[in-house]
Amino acid sequence: MSKVKVLKLQPLFRALKLLPVIPLMFVADAGYARVLNPEEVVDIDSTTPVDNYVLNGDSTLNAEGATTRDIMVNYSTLNLNNSSVQATGAIGVWVVGGWANITGSNIASDRTGLVVSNDANGLSSSATVSDSSISGSETGVKVNGTSELTLVRTTVTGTGATARGLELFAGTVKAIGGSITGNGDAIRIGGSQYSNATLVLSGTTVQSSGGSAILVDTLGQGPTTANISVLDGAQLSSAPDGYLMNVRNGAEANLRVGGSNTHLVGDINADGTSTANVVLEDFATLTGHLENVQSLAVNSNARWVMEGDGSVENLSLNGGGVQFGKPGEFYTLKVENLSGAGGTFYMYNDFTQGLVNTLTVTGTATGNHSIKLDSMGTEPVAVGSTPVVHIASGDASFGLVGGGVSLGAFDYDLVQHAGNQQDWFLDTSSKVISPGTRSVLALFNTAPTVWYGELSTLRSRMGELRTNADKAGGWVRAYGNKFDVSASSGVAYQQVQQGLSFGADAPLPVGDGQWLVGVLGGYSKSDLDLSRGTSGTVNSYYVGAYTTWLDEQSGYYFDGVLKFNRFQNSSDVELTGGDKTKGKYNNYGTGASLEFGRHIKLTDDYFVEPYAQIAGVVIQGKDYDLDNGLSADGSRTHSLLAKAGATAGRNFNLGEGKTVQPYLRAAYVHEFANNNKVEVNNYTFNNDLSGSRGELGAGVAMTMTDKVSLHADFDYSNGDKIEQPWGANVGLRYLW
């Protein structure tokens, strides 16, 4: 070899000393490469003959749409755009203490596609590759020293049977989008005299078909510390017998996983000589088994989903959570030390068989943590006998999400065992009825108030009828009511009812026109609010008949109503702890109302109308289940209501057949029925609306023409167990 050729290759030989794992060859015959002189600028394109290039001394190669063989960049700049590099030697593009900007290009080699490394004097390299593809039969890309490589929407592939996509001996690699694929380990980190390596994967897919997604290994070259970030939807995938991250031979790996669209599935392993630390944050999830992990931090709504029993030396929770597998799986988690401000342990349980996940802290536990247990509708067995949490020492506190867990008919809280302050059990002594039970009781309790809410509009309607008792007509009325039912009735809830009634009536041909009969129909919807996310709905459809009699001379009157209802009942339950359940059923009701009173005319068109009323309804009993297994059996519901009161008002004659009748009403009401049994999972509860209350009302009736009249009525009542903050109805009657 001539002296000139040797001088040209000296920078190459110096750089090769930094990468002993890279074969000592660069091009098929380096002596025939095109060598750029210091500060020389060369432009090539599709018309330029295919050649090898060596860039020296701050020279620049600009390739636009070109095809080349091997390129070496030594303290120089390469701009490669929409070009192709097909290596004939060991390396397609080698950046040694230089700079490279590669866009829309393809680099391929039988050995290594791209190398980014320091030069002999320690000068680092920097390369950015965008919208390109890089492949090598041994390795797609190698990075060493303190050099940096940025990959943007770029595909990196190791094509050989055991090839790697990326080997990061030291330095920094940032990959944004794109993919890194290997038939062996997809990425290997470590094995350099430089101890630190940084890998950032943002939205990048890393896939291994024959090994681990990421291998961290010293390769006998001294200590290796790898700082790895997997962010913004990046994906790691390993072979069935591989790991997401495998740390061995005395290496240390610090893995950070973040982003609401980052969800990793696979295992993380460290051998007995190595260290693995994992941080999950910003809604990211990791599903898999952790082996010999020294520390795990789960922060800011991130979650680790265990697969199998788990063990972590140091666990820190700051707003994150640990999930014990999937529903129906029962695991134990052993932690040496638990710390952090607090997080949530998502545990599954089947207390019908005495099965529950368990957290054990063998060292010190600190922080305020929450436990999320499964709600269920069936009754538990021995809920207070199995500890949910055990700690050896520390001042940590544990409480159930939502303040309890719904198990069958009752809610249970988590308390420390009286004889062992290190164990937390479910408390059976302070159980309260569950939201599912409350929804059942409310639905069975609601039918009478639905029925009476519909009836009150008809009573106002009949008062209007008596002003035109000798004429036939049709009518329609819209109404709404609100009822607040107290816990003393069995369960507290709020009911808002709205509906529409309509009907027609005519005088009987007997009795001198004093008798009038009619038919009615209607629909109402009642929405129940049981607080804390639990609600119910009752859709009521009804038909009926009514009659009224008025003796014009004495003022005595009688009203009678017979009404049949079909109730469609449904409940939407948010159980304690946030689980959901629902159920529905249909049943029927029949009721009647009888009222007797007297219309007394006073001077100046004033009047007073004392009355007494008795009404009763029977609602069909029913049994049904919520979809979480809670079983409800309601007996036949009864109501018997007595009322005594008076209405007072005045008639104003406006002329031309128009009259206005404002009025006030007051009444005393008493409910006699006090024993409506409901069974929930064989526990018996009693719905009891019995008691007295007072009613106040006001309204106005207006005769607009000899055929059209309007009516509006407003009510308020309050008393034992039930309050009606408001009731309102408005209607129209047309005579023919």
Automatic annotation (TrEMBL):
The keyword Signal applies. Residues 1-33 form the signal peptide. NCBIfam families: autotrans_barl (TIGR01414). The keyword Nucleotide-binding does not apply. Transmembrane segments: none annotated. GO terms for cellular component: outer membrane. Residues 467-736 form the Autotransporter domain. Gene3D superfamilies: 2.160.20.20, Autotransporter beta-domain. InterPro entries: Autotransporte_beta, Autotransporte_beta_dom_sf, Autotransporter_adhesion, Autotransporter_pectin_lyase_C, OM_autotransptr_brl_dom, Pectin_lyase_fold/virulence, Pertactin_central, Pertactin_virulence_factor. SUPFAM superfamilies: Autotransporter, Pectin lyase-like. Keywords: Signal. This is Outer membrane autotransporter barrel.
